[in-house]
Amino acid sequence: MPSASLNGRALLNVTGEDAESFLQNLITTDLDTLERGDLRPGTLLSPQGKILFEFLISRNGDGFRLDTLQTSADDLLKRLTLYKLRAKVQIAVDSESLVRVSWKSESSTSDVDSTARDRRFPDVLNVRRHYGGKQPPGGDESTWTVLRIAHGVAEAPYDYALGDAFPHDVNLDQTGGVSFKKGCFVGQEVVSRMQHRGTARKRILVASGTSDLPATGAAITANGREIGTLGSVAGKAGLALVRIDRVKDAMDGDTPILAGEIAIHLAIPPEHRFTFPEATQEA
Length: 283
Hints:
By secondary structure, this protein is of the alpha+beta class. The protein has 2 domains: about 5-195, Probable tRNA modification gtpase trme, domain 1 (Gyrase A, domain 2); about 200-265, Elongation Factor Tu (Ef-tu), domain 3 (Beta Barrel). The protein has helices at about 20-25, 70-85, 140-150, 190-195, 245-250; strands at about 5, 10-15, 40-45, 50-60, 65-70, 90-95, 100, 115-120, 130, 200-210, 220, 225-235, 235-245, 255-260, 260-265. The strands form 2 sheets. The protein has a 9-stranded mixed beta sheet, with helices on both faces. Strand 3 and strand 4 (about 50-60) form a beta hairpin. The radius of gyration is 19 Å and the shape is globular.
């Protein structure tokens, strides 16, 4: 069973009789569809629809656990507290909790909510997050990066900058991280309009290089024009946040796409449902 201990994570525990309604009215995830033992991605957006905070949310007893970046945890706590008003909610940060991830395991979800299945990945992989307690040591975190890349699962700050991306840009509409059926949430009008008009121009794609890729942050270009940025990297594979219309134009014109100086192929992640746009029309 492959596993990895994850560094730089913190947990926010949201409890109280109003915890579910409080979060449901703020975040992009639909908590009505979040089953006990499952974990889904979520975000808190700006009113303009940009991702301010990302997290993985799961049920924990009568409340919720938000697994987020340690560097963002205190700011997320402050932001949620601003929205709290008179809601009967308690929010606490646990920056010391251990987080481990495993996959290809035959184990089932823990009865005490210390384990949750990561629904960003196919069921066959049985990817699970393990929280707290005395956990067995996990492997190198690079193995987790390889798995994320293979399935197009983007995470800040490696694949995009917080405050600078819409949920569609990082494929949260594909992985259950944003709902278009629930009621209002912060930034909902903007992301719903992008969904219904089909105006998402940027996407996370899987990059495959002819040799080892350059470091995270390298420019991706076609015909000398920048079309995106390289994110997480593992050898010849990586994730890329790119303008998919410009990627399609390059592919249709047999124009080489480069990450730094390395030729790459860009593909839609497996299990994702979006497509490349139609070829642009000349004026």
